Amino acid sequence: MNNTILIFLLLLLTLASTSAQPRQGTSIDKAALAAEVRVEFLHAWSSYKRYAWGHDGLKPLSKTHYDWYRVSLYMTALDALDTIVLMGLKEEADSTREFIATHLSFDHDIYVKNFEITIRLLGGLLSSYQLTGDERLLKLADDLGTRLLPVFKSPTGIPYVEVNLKTGAVRNPRTNPAEVGTLLVEFGTLSKLTGKREYYEVAKNAVMQIYNRRTSIGLVGTWIDANTGEWLDRDSHLSACIDSYYEYLLKCAILFDDKDFKKMWDSSRVAIDKFLADETSTGLWFGHADMQTGKRTKAWFGALDAFFPAVLALAGDVPRAARLQESCFKMWNKYGIEPDQFDYSKMDTVSPRYFLNPEIMESAYYLYRYTDDARYLEMGKTFLDGLKKHCRVEAGYAELRNVATKEKSDRMESYFLAETLKYLYLLFAPPETLDFRKTIFNTEAHPIKKTW
Ligand code: DMJ
Question: What is the pLDDT of residues 74-86, one digit of tens each?
Answer without folding.
Answer: 999 999 999 999 9
